[in-house]
Structures are given as structure tokens and as C-alpha cells.
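FIELD: query
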Amino acid sequence: MTIAIVGCGSFAQDFIPLFQVHPLVSDVLLCDTDQVKLSDTAARHGIERTCQSLEEVLASEVDAVAIFTQNWLHGPQAVQALRAGKHVYSAVPPAITVQEVESLVNAVEETGYVYMLGETSYYYPGTIFCRQQFAKGAFGRVVYCEGEYYHDWDHGLYDVMRTRGGEQWRRFAGSPPMHYPTHSVAPIVSVLGRRMTHVSCQGFEDSESEIYGPDANVWDNRFSNQSALFRMSDGSVCRINEFRRIGHPCVERVSIYGTEGCFQDSVAGAVWTDKHDVTRLDDLLKCASRTPGGTEVSPDSAEPAFRGVSPLHEIARLPKEFVGLPNGHFGSHQFLVDDFVKAVHSGQQPRNDVWQAARYVLPGLVAHESALRGGEMLEIPDFGHQ
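FIELD: result
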């Protein structure tokens, strides 16, 4: 297959080398409307073919596009690409309105092309561990889950938005936190195999920040922090926090509590508990460089190794060409690229397909609407599953 990387920002840089060396990819193109960024990225990765617009890409013969543009563009651009006959890999979030999500699902169902969301938390060691425990029945009946994405502006977000938004970056900066819920929601949904059905959400009105408030941003959003309580389709309860102004380390974490066992994550580390014992999971969840056989090696070792993976990651399934290449977000990047390429090659749906993507993002979009209504309980739509 051939693929075009659309958007040459900092996040795309870690993925370009992976697509380049994957044995099922024959060629990689680059696309960006910023000529300087496009030229610099092409030179850095030794790529000859470039385009300066998505329309130019879609008129070409490439089989697929990987979208790494500004997050509020993902939904419409993915639909445009699918309708043009391209498979789509998209960075998160998949869309920022319920209508965009519906259009995305319809485009996949009507065209038959592969869509995959690059949700990194699906391959976090803690999520993998919880899926394994759930499959064994170790949780018993799940009664409560909580997900948290704490990312204060002082943790690099100012620079990110200056890059994404240009001179008018403040106008695009203050988006509703619940428009970006996938890191908190996806682990829970992917572990339980269930969906969120109803929500009541509250928002923290941030009067001290120039980014939030009436007319401060294109989203007309005044909330810097939002906390939502969800009803799950299995009868359990879930709480999600999306905070952007908080005196706390930048973290993405999930805890799941069942009648027989619990997975609890915190700043101090993750533990598995039952009614009698507490087991620390530090070594099991630790990400490090590991040989194809799984043996941990020191960071400065010359021995070939997969980067940043835990003992729970199935590195034997990865292409050997990935050894030594970037692998960010707790070992997830290489697995996401491999999932997408193999899905396109086989015609099978990937793990984070469009129906799962909808279930990852819709809870947050409806939660924001609930916050605007003072916490009114709202029903979350569902577009089914494959």
C-alpha cells in the first residue's frame, strides 16, 4: 500500500519512520499547507513526493491517508478522504460534534473503506492488563470505573496551540475539555466491551484565564475543567475527569473496580487488589527497551531492541523493521501503525474501528452539552458496532 501523511507537525514525526519501514507499505507521501514545514519534514525523512493540499493528495493514487492535522479538522477531513476512495488513519479525536461522528460512521458504512482511530491508550500496559483480567473474570462484576486526563496548560499546551492555531491561536485554544475524552473513555470501553449510555456533567468556569470565557474562543467555551458521571450499558457507573487547569502532574489513568478484584492507578503507581491482597504492578507495567525475545536492555545498549514496551506488549507480532525506531505513548505507536496497515492489507476491521471511535468520543461530546445545561442527564447516541 501507499500512504500520505497529512499534517507534518511534531506528533507526525514519530509515525513517519514507522510507515516508511513497514513491510506492507511501498511508499510514503507528505502533505502540509506550510511549505517550510513540509520541506523540512521531507528532508528529515528522505521523502521525495509531497503535496500542499488534502485535495491534491486525494486526487493522487495513494491507497490511504494518515491524518495528523489540527484536531478540530479530523472528522471532516476523514469523511472527505473516505468519500474519495482512501483508507483513513486518524489521530484523536475522531470528530468534535455528534453530527460529524454520524457522518464519519456513514462514510465508512457506505464506502467500505477502512477507518482506524489512533487512540494510544488502547495499548497502554494498564489497559492491556485490565483486558486480560477482565477476560479471565478476575474483576467479577464491574461496578465502577474512573478515567482521568489531567493536562495543565503549563505542561506544553501553550506551545502546541501556538503551532496549531498560528497568530490567532488563543481563539482556537479554549476548546471544551470533553471534546477530547478518548484517553479517559477508550480504556474503559475497550476493556469492558460496553458503552456509556447516559451522562450528567459539571464544568468549572475559568474566569482567571484569557483562553476561556464568553467570546474568548471560537468554541464559546467557558469551562477549563469538566467532570462527568456516566451510566454504562452493563449497569456499572463511570466517572470521567477532563482537566486543563489543575495543579497536578500530566497524567492519563484509569481505575476499574469489580466485585472480586480491582485495578487502581494513581501517581504512586498501579496496583491489583482483591478482597485480601494488594499486588504492585510496577515491573509488569514498566516500559523499557526490550529485545525481540522480551529481555530488557539498558537505554544506551547497542543491542537491537523494541523501544518503550512492557512485558505485556506482544512485540513478537511487530515487524522486525520496527526495532530501534520511535515508539511513544507507553509503547502504543508501533502497534497502532501495524494494526492499520494490516487492516488495509487484509480488509479486516482494526481494533479501533469507526464504531469504537464513536463510542470513545460521543460520551464526551454529550457530556459537554450536559454541562451547558447545568448537569442535565442526557442520553448518549450509539451507532452500533461491526
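FIELD: remark
The two ends are 24 Å apart (CA to CA).
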